[in-house]
Design goal:
416 residues, Growth Hormone, Chain: A, 23 helices
């Protein structure tokens, strides 16, 4: 009864927060999930290879990775609201600037460096920090809804980008239109409804944040924990393989004979099923051991790779592969954020989870680039799909090997 009452009380007070935060999190990956349809137009206009197109994304993700922990510390100090509001404007503005690409690789890299500065302010740490400060008994579901923002991006942005590119303004207009529409939708919602416990405590008439917000490991203790390095391994291998596959999913299908719009439609299934994966994962995380939930989910891309390798031209295989990738995509950040909160506590969650976001960013930096380079060398994605199978198996093993949280962190927090 106590747990149920706790869950219902959290949702009565803060039901709007996960939904609002999900829009903020979707902003952080607009440049990742929309890039597939842009690959061919950029190749056609500038004569680039696929690796050259992906070079910008790699540079942005690598720069973002370097500063993930400092931004996490900033979130711990000033609260997620201020960081997130600034970040949405910076991110959408920098994404629109991609429309000014000149064909010079140096110019392309510079534009992605600007995007990197925007992504720092909308990384997962910002949104999950607010959620973890408001939800404890129903944290898994709240995180799932929040991180469904990436699923929304994966479902919406490929098809929207393909449609906008097909209009008179082409790929340049598509960058500007997507950025402008998203900023107009998201910024007002965040301004009205997005506040974590640290943000609320800055109001003169507000109660102080719950005591549980300040419990957990120190940064030094977290850095000495073997759990951190297992999570770093799982995070980096996951994002390297899965994000690489997602970004190149449209080209993988078009190389098999599908037209660009049809391929974008199939790719949108990744987003649809990632929503299912996130909500299902959130339900399971509140009921079963998180490391085993994550390990099973991280094995699903192996099924997708096998289907694409056996006969990637079959529409059924394409759809099932998209569904399998989507289910895993919908679980990864939820599992990592949930395990980080369980094992490290909330006192320095922003900093320690920032290290894990760094690993995710590094995987995102090199996965799409590696997939493009492997294709350029072999004129085929087969070697990348084989590599992805091995790395996802290793990632699942790393999660399954986690032990229980430290007693001091797992113990019930004192009442506020």
């Amino acid at each position: 009864m106590g747990v149920a009452a706790g869950k219902s009380g959290e949702w009565r007070s803060f039901w709007f927060l996960p939904f609002t935060a999900s829009l903020g999190y979707a902003t952080s990956v607009i440049h990742v999930y929309s890039m597939g349809p842009f690959i061919a137009p950029l190749q056609e206009e500038f004569g680039w290879t696929r690796a050259q197109v992906m070079l910008g994304l790699s540079v942005a993700s690598f720069i973002s990775a370097i500063f993930c922990m400092p931004v996490g510390i900033l979130v711990d100090r000033v609260g997620p609201r201020r960081v997130g509001l600034v970040g949405v404007l910076l991110m959408t503005g920098s994404f629109a600037l991609l429309s000014t690409a000149t064909g010079s690789i140096a110019n392309w890299i510079f534009l992605w460096v600007v995007i990197a500065l925007g992504t720092l302010w909308v990384q997962a740490t910002v949104w999950t920090s607010a959620i973890n400060s408001r939800f404890e008994q129903s944290r898994g579901l709240a995180l799932a809804i929040t991180l469904s923002g990436a699923s929304l991006s994966a479902a919406l942005f490929p098809a929207l980008a393909a449609w906008l590119i097909g209009r008179e303004d082409g790929w340049r207009g598509a960058f500007v239109s997507m950025a402008g529409l998203w900023a107009l939708l998201v910024f007002p919602m965040l301004f009205l409804f997005f506040r974590g416990a640290r943000d609320q405590s800055r109001k003169p008439d507000a109660a102080p944040p719950p005591a549980r917000v300040l419990t957990g490991l120190s940064i030094a203790e977290g850095l000495r924990s073997p759990t951190l390095y297992k999570l770093l391994m799982a995070s980096s291998l996951f994002s390297f393989t899965t994000i690489g596959a997602v970004v190149h999913f449209v080209p993988i299908l078009t190389d098999s004979g599908a037209d660009r719009l049809a391929a974008a439609g199939v790719a949108s299934l990744i987003g649809v099923f990632s929503i299912v994966g996130r909500l299902g994962t959130g339900f399971l995380l509140d009921r079963f051991q998180a490391q085993y939930v994550g390990a099973v989910a991280f094995l699903l891309p192996i099924v997708a790779c096998l289907l694409l390798l056996s006969d990637g031209s079959q529409p059924l295989n394409q759809a099932v592969a998209a569904a399998a990738i989507g289910l895993t995509l919908g679980s990864e950040v939820d599992v990592i954020a949930y395990l980080a909160a369980k094992h490290f506590g909330l006192k320095n969650f922003g900093a320690l989870y920032g290290a894990l976001v760094m690993a995710l960013s590094l995987g995102t930096a090199f996965g799409p680039l590696a997939a493009g380079a492997i294709f350029d060398l072999n004129n085929s994605y087969v070697p990348f799909l084989l590599l992805a199978m091995g790395l996802m198996a290793a990632s699942a093993i790393a999660l399954a090997s986690l032990g229980r949280p430290p007693a001091a962190v797992a113990a019930p927090a004192p009442a506020a």
